[in-house]
């Protein structure tokens, strides 16, 4: 079992590069290293899915932004022109950080 300080460092090394893909968090990390460290420890939760699993569905309250770190997901929206693939290194649901939001489609 790893000591707590080493677990913290591993979490930071894993999550900081993912979080800073978002331009706002990249700029934030340049100004507040400790703030990004805190995000890595208090605001990140990992979710593993198998093909066909639903990450979120239309109409549910959106309280979470998601970073896709592996694989390809399918975003389904009632308007076919808004359906798309979401690939590794992309993120979805950023408005959930800033607004009261409902999911408008579903992500599989």
Automatic annotation (TrEMBL):
InterPro entries to which the protein is assigned, alphabetical: cNMP-bd_dom_sf (IPR018490), RmlC-like_jellyroll (IPR014710)
Protein name as annotated: Cyclic nucleotide-binding domain-containing protein
Organism: Noctiluca scintillans
């Amino acid at each position: 079992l790893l000591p707590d300080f080493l677990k913290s460092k591993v979490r930071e090394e894993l999550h900081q590069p993912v979080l800073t893909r978002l331009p706002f968090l990249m700029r934030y990390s340049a100004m507040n290293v400790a703030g990004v460290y805190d995000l890595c420890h208090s605001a990140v939760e990992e979710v593993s899915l198998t093909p066909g699993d639903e990450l979120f569905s239309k109409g549910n309250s959106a309280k979470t932004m998601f970073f896709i770190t592996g694989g390809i997901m399918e975003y389904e929206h009632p308007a076919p022109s808004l359906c798309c693939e979401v690939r590794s290194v992309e993120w979805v649901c950023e408005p959930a950080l800033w607004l009261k939001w409902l999911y408008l489609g579903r992500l599989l």
